[in-house]
């Protein structure tokens, strides 16, 4: 066999038993490093003479959920006017996942775990699970009573 993963970097990811034609993976694979490989298999006789034209082998590495989503920023700061109506936009948070975004492994979903303080309501904000948009849920934002909320 020839190609990336055989005789081209990364070298020797694949090997082939010259007698049976069985191909083997020689070490763990990581889709984030190489999502696919294109190899060519060559049929030769015991003297190394070509007996058939080479064939193409396409190997696709199936993603494993081995990466956690990571927020783009460590801290997000938003602001909203006091007395804002429910549904008022506050901010958008964004996270990325290195896993395959076309599978559930790489899809990012958002949720609010806690809000501090929990007054006047324990749910003053909500987050769109798909977009990361945070909006007000309850009325009662009063700067004189609560100047800042921490949402995790």
UniProtKB/TrEMBL annotation:
<dbReference type="Pfam" id="PF00028">
    <property type="entry name" value="Cadherin"/>
</dbReference>
<dbReference type="InterPro" id="IPR002126">
    <property type="entry name" value="Cadherin-like_dom"/>
</dbReference>
<dbReference type="GO" id="GO:0005509">
    <property type="term" value="F:calcium ion binding"/>
</dbReference>
<keyword id="KW-0677">Repeat</keyword>
<dbReference type="InterPro" id="IPR039808">
    <property type="entry name" value="Cadherin"/>
</dbReference>
<dbReference type="GO" id="GO:0007156">
    <property type="term" value="P:homophilic cell adhesion via plasma membrane adhesion molecules"/>
</dbReference>
<keyword id="KW-0130">Cell adhesion</keyword>
<feature type="domain" description="Cadherin">
    <location>
        <begin position="1"/>
        <end position="71"/>
    </location>
</feature>
<protein>
    <recommendedName>
        <fullName>Cadherin-4</fullName>
    </recommendedName>
</protein>
<keyword id="KW-0472">Membrane</keyword>
<dbReference type="InterPro" id="IPR015919">
    <property type="entry name" value="Cadherin-like_sf"/>
</dbReference>
<keyword id="KW-1003">Cell membrane</keyword>
<keyword id="KW-0106">Calcium</keyword>
<feature type="domain" description="Cadherin">
    <location>
        <begin position="72"/>
        <end position="151"/>
    </location>
</feature>
<dbReference type="GO" id="GO:0005886">
    <property type="term" value="C:plasma membrane"/>
</dbReference>
<dbReference type="InterPro" id="IPR020894">
    <property type="entry name" value="Cadherin_CS"/>
</dbReference>
<keyword id="KW-0812">Transmembrane</keyword>
<keyword id="KW-0479">Metal-binding</keyword>
<keyword id="KW-0325">Glycoprotein</keyword>
């Amino acid at each position: 066999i020839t190609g990336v993963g055989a005789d081209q970097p990364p070298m020797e990811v694949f090997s082939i038993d010259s007698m049976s034609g069985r191909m083997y993976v020689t070490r763990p694979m990581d889709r984030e490093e190489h999502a696919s490989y294109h190899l060519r298999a060559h049929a030769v006789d015991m003297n190394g003479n070509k007996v058939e034209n080479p064939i193409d082998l396409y190997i696709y590495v199936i993603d494993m959920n081995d990466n956690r989503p990571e927020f783009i920023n460590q801290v997000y700061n938003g602001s909203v006017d006091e007395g804002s109506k429910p549904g008022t936009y506050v901010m958008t948070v964004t996270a990325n996942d290195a896993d395959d975004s076309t599978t559930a492994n790489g899809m990012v979903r958002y949720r609010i775990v806690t809000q501090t303080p929990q007054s006047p309501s324990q749910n003053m904000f909500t987050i769109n699970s798909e977009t990361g948009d945070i909006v007000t849920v309850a009325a009662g934002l009063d700067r004189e009573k609560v100047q800042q909320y921490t949402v995790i």
